[in-house]
Structures are given as structure tokens and as C-alpha cells.
Write a structure and sequence with these properties.
Organism: Phytohabitans rumicis
Shape: globular
CATH class of the largest domain: Alpha Beta
Protein name: Oxidoreductase
CATH superfamily of the largest domain: 2,3-Dihydroxybiphenyl 1,2-Dioxygenase, domain 1
Number of domains: 2
Structural class: alpha/beta
Pfam families: Glyoxalase
Helix content: 10-25%
Distance between the termini: 29 Å
Strand order of the largest sheet: 14-15-16-13-9-12-11-10-17
Radius of gyration: 18 Å
InterPro entries: Glyas_Bleomycin-R_OHBP_Dase (IPR029068), Glyas_Fos-R_dOase_dom (IPR004360), GlyoxalaseI/FosfomycinResist (IPR050383), VOC_core (IPR037523)
CATH topology of the largest domain: 2,3-Dihydroxybiphenyl 1,2-Dioxygenase, domain 1
Number of helices: 6
Strand content: 25-35%
Number of strands: 17
């Protein structure tokens, strides 16, 4: 088993009350491909990704984050992680076994320190996918997920200790202290980030496009279509990636991005980025200002699914 049990981010699953509008949003506006549907659950893939699906939408009375799923190298990594988590008192939802979701595989689920359901799996069958062509403004893959937390330092320590995520950079404010922590499980600058917030919730899900031109075309298409834009287009300093944030029909924040930094982990040292400097939020200076309005739009509603595993 490798020292780092997690290899990459697989998919992020949400539950929403306005299910039909969410499904239509992903397939007709966001540029994802519907690859399966069953009893109020729809699976969406990115056409350029080998992952069976990168987002799952479930019909539910209340909005919640159902699941964040990560990949592991092999069964030994999965079994070893499950044994270590159990011995450390982490609550397992189930023991490692065969998965019943598209693509099968072998994995298990558990709760993180704030009660979100996390899945780790291996041997999931690759999906037939294709090259995303020049000027094709649809997501290539899932980039990262950001979680809101009232105790982000505790979250940071938990993901470091139990899943071996490493800190890449931190956003700080001279008067407010730490605001966001970027964490990695591979050489990509971040697959997971934790943002300071009054309550646990989904901050945003980020989708990577082919390149700058495709990212701008996609951002413009969504703005023309009247999808509510929160912030962007711009380019962050931490991670060096582009950003445009939108609200989906259920009030979750979704991001188009590209060009996320790939780092040399042997030489990388985390930096503190002062958010009072405008170039930290947006190197280009093209986005609307990062202010209290933008921050509150990403606070989202308090998560209703803590320490309650989804039914599927």
C-alpha cells in the first residue's frame, strides 16, 4: 500500500428538492452527459473523463451533500484505510465490499469529523470517453470540491491525519485570520479545500474545461443564458486557476475553471496569501469584487445530512 491512501477525487453527490430543474441544469446548461437514471437518482459524466460519473443528483425533501467520493490505488489501500479509521474511532457507514453504483468497484463509506459521508473506492471500471475538442465549452473532468466549516482548523487536521491530505496554501485576512485552506491528495494544487463558514455546508463544486478559450466561451454561454453568476470571470492566485461561479437551481454554487496548478511536491512550501490584496482573489482584475455579498452566496444552507448516510 502506498503512503498516501487517496489518489484522486471521483465524484460529488448531492440531494435536492427541485430535482427536475437540477437534472435539466446539468444536462442542458452545464454541459454534462446523463449516463444513468433510476428511481429519483441521475448520474452525470464529463465527456472527457474516464470516471463513470462525476456528479450524482438524488431527489429529496431537503437539500444536502450526499457524498464525496475519492479513489484509492488498490484493495490493499482500501482495506488498510478502513482498518486504520476504525481503530482511530472514525464511524464507518459500512465495511469494504463490492459497490452497487455504476462501474462497480470495491470500497466503503465513513463519516468525516463533521458528519459528511465520504467514500473511498478502487477497481471502478473506466467509462468510454473522448477527447474534448478545441472550442468545445463543456467540462473535461471534475476539478475539486470545497467544503464550508465552522471549525476549519479541526477539519484540516482531520483530513491530514486520517486521509493524508497535504496543505498547499492558505488564504488569510489581516483581521479575520485564516479563511480557506487548499489541500491536495496528488500533485494538483488542490482536490479539496475547506472554507471558514458559520455552519457545515457545500461551498462549491468545480469543473475543469479544456483551456482558457473553452473556459471563457463556457462562462459567456452561461451568462447569456441567464444562469445566476456570483463571481468571475477571473484568475485566482492560490492554484493559479481561472474561476467563474454560478448558482444552480437549488442554490448550490458551481464553478467553471481551468489551468489549475500542478506542483512539484518535493519542493513545494505552503504560502499564506493575504486576501486584502486584490490580486490574491483575482490576478486579472476582471471579476466583480470579492466582498461580503459574494462570500454569503457561497455559505449555502446548513447541511441537513450530517452523520446520516444517503440511502443510495
Amino acid at each position: 500500500m502506498s503512503e498516501r491512501p487517496i489518489t484522486h477525487l471521483r465524484h460529488v453527490d448531492i440531494a435536492v428538492p427541485d430535482y427536475d430543474k437540477q437534472v435539466a441544469f446539468y444536462s442542458q446548461k452545464w454541459g454534462l452527459a446523463e449516463v444513468g437514471r433510476d428511481s429519483g437518482v441521475t448520474y452525470f459524466a464529463a465527456v472527457g473523463s474516464p470516471e463513470q460519473y462525476i456528479v450524482r443528483v438524488r431527489r429529496a425533501p431537503e437539500k444536502r451533500l450526499d457524498l464525496v467520493a475519492f479513489g484509492a490505488a488498490d484493495r490493499q489501500a482500501v482495506d488498510g484505510l478502513a482498518a486504520r479509521l476504525a481503530s482511530d474511532g472514525v464511524r464507518l457507514v459500512n465495511e469494504p465490499g463490492s459497490l452497487q453504483t455504476p462501474g462497480g468497484g470495491y470500497g466503503f463509506r465513513f463519516f468525516d469529523v463533521e458528519g459528511r459521508t465520504i467514500e473511498v473506492s478502487t477497481e471502478v471500471e473506466d467509462r468510454a470517453h473522448r477527447r474534448v475538442e478545441e472550442r468545445e465549452d463543456v467540462p473535461v473532468r471534475l476539478s475539486h470540491v470545497v467544503l464550508n466549516s465552522p471549525e476549519p482548523e479541526k477539519m484540516l487536521a482531520w483530513y491530514d491525519k486520517h486521509l493524508s491530505f497535504r496543505l498547499s496554501d492558505t488564504l488569510v485576512h489581516p483581521h479575520l485570520g485564516g479563511l480557506m485552506w487548499f489541500m491536495r491528495c496528488n500533485p494538483q494544487h488542490h482536490s479539496l479545500a475547506v472554507a471558514r463558514c458559520p455552519h457545515p455546508a457545500l461551498h462549491h463544486i468545480s469543473f475543469e474545461l479544456r483551456g482558457i478559450d473553452e473556459y471563457m466561451r463556457g462562462s459567456g454561454r452561461l451568462m447569456r443564458d441567464g444562469i445566476p453568476k456570483i463571481w468571475g470571470p477571473g484568475r485566482h492566485l492560490a492554484g493559479d486557476n481561472t474561476f467563474t461561479y454560478f448558482h444552480d437551481p437549488n442554490g448550490n454554487t458551481m464553478e467553471y475553471t481551468t489551468a489549475l496548478e500542478v506542483i512539484d511536491e518535493d519542493t513545494w512550501h505552503p504560502s499564506l496569501h493575504d486576501t486584502s490584496r486584490p490580486e490574491v482573489a483575482d490576478q486579472w482584475g476582471t471579476a466583480n469584487p470579492m466582498n461580503e455579498f459574494v462570500s454569503k452566496q457561497m455559505f449555502n444552507d446548513p447541511d441537513k445530512g450530517l452523520f446520516a448516510a444517503p440511502p443510495v
